[in-house]
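Data card: per-record layout.
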Amino acid sequence: MPLKEKRPKMNSLEQHISSLAKSAVKALYNVDAEDSQIQLQKTRPEFEGNITLVVFPFVKLARKAPQAVAQEIGEWMLNEQMVNGQIVNKFNAVQGFLNLSISDAFWVEQLKAIDADANYGRFKYPNGKINDQMVHPLMMVEYSSPNTNKPLHLGHVRNNLLGYSIAQIQEANGWKVVKTNIVNDRGIHICKSMLAWLKFGNGETPESSGKKGDHLIGDYYVRFDKEYKKQIAELMSKGMDEETAKKEAPLMLEAQEMLRKWEANDPEVRALWAKMNEWVYAGFDETYRRLGVSFDKIYYESNTYLEGKSEVEKGLASGAFYRREDGSVWADLTKDGLDEKLLLRSDGTSVYMTQDIGTAKLRFQDYPIDKMVYVVGNEQEYHFKVLSILLDRLGFPFGKELVHFSYGMVELPNGKMKSREGTVVDADELMDKMIADAREISKDKVNTLQGITEDEANEIARKVGLGALKYFILKVDPRKNMLFNPAESIDFNGNTGPFIQYTYARIQSVLRKAETSDFRNVDMSKSRNIEEKELALIQRLCEYPTAVRTAGEEFSPAILCNYAYALACDFNSFYHDLSIINEPDEQKKALRLLLSRNVAKVLRTSFALLGIEMPERM
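The structure for this 618-residue chain is written out next.
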């Protein structure tokens, strides 16, 4: 049975204040406060304080005005801490809101705790047992889903980056995650590439052409479309209408016949299909490796569609589906507010929905999945509504539990991409361009890169170029369409990946200069006058677990991007205004170095969840 999700634990400050608030309510009003009654929020900027307790839930119990209740609880907290150690050092009550100012000593201890926690920002899932058995909830995340008739393009890049990052974020939130891919390796579009290669390829191979296999096959997909359009135009010139010409064009008829032979296991067609797919897979693997994404399990439509056809036949026998006079099989979804859905064509060949039914069945056989997440563009929202209904109708208990993570499309200044016309932004070429741009920009930073080898410079350019690409795509709310602009993404200023990477590299430079300073062993217990910008950094660091938790709940890498950018901005403001290496006060110097070290740590770990690498120098 699927697990019911619970929020991970509150952060340390929230835990302390929650415990203090419960004790105050018990002491003042003799009431045991429920967790749901303890409402905490960040203090609004116009008021003094760090965290605010909402006291309205206790007003009726106290039989006093909200202002009086807030005042009483605040005074009790201060008096109690005189005995048990101070966390809150002052407060102000504004109607039903108790704004609490937290002591410097507490913030220093929080910084030390962050530094000591090797897994800071990672959660253990709170659901520990089901029926007295220890469990670790499993989430499967499907992404990529390429077709073997073309290379990966910019749209695939967004899909892969979102899918991989979501998987990393959910692992940080305590899920066991299986990253999976369904390769669309059969169908009419595959036959188009195969037929074009047979007719026009003259035996060309990746080795003979020097092309990646996926690029080579993509070229023949484009070639099919070019020759197909010529045939349509020729038929129309002889008086045939356009729709009929599209159906009667010889190339299309041959491709459809090839698909029928494939499904009938014709040995020649299958051998050609296997050879060309191997070329494509080798190309895909290289692109995935460069992009920094991976999979734990890959499914192939050529294997899963038969399972789907079998399930459709069972549904036909049970009355869940029906057969039309032409032999095609359909599902009537009009009672669900939808229309009728084709499941098997009149010639017995399957459609995408058939394959997805079979794939879902196999996945739930292979893994004890608690949550299945499909990372697929928003143009497929209807498809997944139908899939959920069909699986439920077929009797699969997981049918209603499927999650379609629907994301927006990537658009270009000159319009949408079209693979068959060859007007796509190729993923490999895009990565090459981003890395080359980063390498060119680094030439302007000769001083900071002195003493490094050519290989080291190229590695920095790779991390910065790909970091720029990934961050630019992931920082956008995934549910929105986005306009891709490479020039904006590579900028070293503003909300970009290179800006945050440069901040990290700057910190690493500071820490290298401080290598002889044993700052972690300096006693900071007497630090009572933390600078405003030091405090802002510590507080921001304390917010990291909440950012990870929220990014997981909302399936939004953009939340982590925004957090990392805010942290980098806070550090640069701190770095600009306060001395670190040259600070004469040893306690202040130690605190600032410890702050720097942990800002770098959190920037690195947050970017790792986004699939972005950090360069040590820039």
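Known properties of this structure: Residues 186-292 form one domain. The longest strand covers residues 176-183.

See the next section for split statistics.
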